[in-house]
Specification:
The protein is α+β, with helices and mostly antiparallel strands. It contains 5 helices and 4 strands, in the order H-E-E-E-E-H-H-H-H. The chain has a 4-stranded antiparallel beta sheet with strand order 1-2-3-4, covered by helices on one side.
Length: about 120
């Protein structure tokens, strides 16, 4: 499925759990592609919000495509940086790199960030 890791990771992380996910609707379009609409609840700390998704099976291409939406408040750049730093110190380099791509523009000139990223890339 072609879903942006950055988009998904900004909604779903270690502090977030998904509950009550269910298929809300499904249908076929004129081209025979199957659409599925999914809904549920995301909980992060004391915040609770709706989560929605639409996934499409493209019959002729034999691939899935989709998108996810959430009403959760997006994490700030500093929250993402602190989470990435914590993952780096836990030696979870692949997870660190996933989050670091989200904040890459904001922290590209930060020496600590750049050094952590270089180390993580060499160890993955």
């Amino acid at each position: 499925m072609e879903v942006s890791n950055e988009r998904l990771n900004s909604m779903i992380d270690k502090q977030t759990s998904l509950n009550k996910l269910s298929i809300k609707n499904s249908w076929k379009d004129g081209g025979g592609n199957t659409h599925i609409s999914i809904g549920g609840i995301a909980i992060r700390g004391s915040e609770q919000a709706k989560v929605r998704a639409e996934i499409v099976w493209l019959k002729n291409l034999k691939i899935f495509r989709g998108n996810f939406w959430s009403d959760l408040t997006p994490k700030s750049e500093i929250e993402l940086f602190n989470e990435a730093k914590s993952l780096f110190h836990q030696k979870k380099y692949a997870e660190f790199l996933t989050i670091s791509r989200i904040i890459e523009v904001e922290y590209s000139k930060n020496k600590i960030y750049s050094k952590m990223r270089a180390i993580a890339e060499s160890r993955v």
